[in-house]
Design brief:
The protein has ten helices and seven strands. The protein is α/β, with parallel strands linked by helices. The chain has one domain: Vaccinia Virus protein VP39 (Rossmann fold), CATH 3.40.50. The protein binds the ligand C/C(=C\Cc1cc(O)c2ccccc2c1O)CCC[C@H](C)CCC[C@H](C)CCCC(C)C and S-adenosylmethionine. Pathway: Cofactor biosynthesis; phylloquinone biosynthesis.
């Protein structure tokens, strides 16, 4: 399963950023900016972006922490990490970001290292959500926050129906034109099995986070799970 997921993201890497802009009508930048704000990252901080992909959130964190901060971006897709590296060299962020190829279920960091963390559209894709939250909790410092942005299944049946319609009739057919039908068709079942905001909060409390709140975005079709470690 892990290999299959990595292969999906390696295949979509060349068009990933362009398709996110199209499908979200450019709105994913706003959602990501909200996650950065909720992570409470500040100048001079040491920050972590899990499942960093092509680096959108890590680059935003780098701008936030400034030249005295440090940012690590972790992902297991070599192709998306190559895009992230190329983008960061082009944009020349201060500090330079350390891009690390690793599995977020086994983070290559000591305990209690990070002041803030983000994860964008990663939690739904990991094979063990509980383990992923445990690893995140382990590497955060006491008092640190994390913001986890992802899709969400809205409770309102009409909005849920619109979300499903959009995925089935806009996203998958457009991706099919680029030869990526199966890759984008994967979003829908991954969303079906993803815990709701309420369930995510419960899981986060169980692994030891002192507080956990799920904030709905885009009429509950997306959400940000905000976590604090005591
Ligand atoms: C940045 C976005 C999604 C990232 C993403 C996450 C995944 O798990 C994938 C899995 C497999 C292939 C690709 C991805 C992937 O790109 C969010 C924006 C893209 C969405 C496809 C857009 C979905 C929009 C919502 C259903 C609601 C639309 C509201 C409005 C039209 C803005
Ligand atoms: C949808 S992309 C999100 C990328 C980026 N965070 C964004 O918001 O655009 C999901 C990413 O999670 C990564 N991923 C999934 N499971 C992972 C794991 N166990 N360890 C490391 N990366 C993982 C994939 O390689 C992919 O880059």
């Amino acid at each position: 399963m892990t290999q299959e997921i990595r292969a999906i993201f390696d295949r979509i890497a060349p068009v990933y950023d362009q398709l996110n802009n199209w499908f979200s009508l450019g709105q994913h930048h706003i959602w990501k900016e909200m996650a950065i704000k909720w992570s409470a990252a500040k100048p001079g901080d040491t920050c972590l972006d899990l499942c960093c992909g092509s680096g959108d959130l890590a680059l935003r964190l780098a701008r936030r922490v400034g030249s005295k901060g440090i940012v690590y971006g972790v992902d297991f897709s070599p192709n998306l990490l190559a895009t992230a590296k190329e983008r960061s060299q082009r944009q020349y962020p201060q500090p330079a970001i350390s891009w690390i190829e690793a599995d977020v279920l086994n983070l290559p960091f000591e305990d209690n290292q990070f002041d803030a963390a983000t994860m964008g559209y990663g939690l739904r894709n990991v094979t063990d959500i509980r383990r992923s939250l445990q690893e995140l909790h382990r590497v955060l410092k006491s008092g640190a926050k994390a913001a986890i942005l992802d899709f969400h299944r809205p409770a309102n049946p009409q909005i849920r129906a619109f979300q499903q319609w959009y995925l089935d009739n806009i996203v998958v057919p457009m991706a099919e034109r680029m030869g990526l039908k199966e890759e984008y068709a994967y979003i829908s079942p991954s969303l079906d099995r993803f815990p709701t905001g309420k369930e995510q909060v419960k899981l986060a409390r169980e692994v030891g986070f002192a507080s956990a709140t799920h904030y709905p975005l885009v009429n509950d079709m997306m959400g940000v799970l905000v976590l604090s470690k005591l």
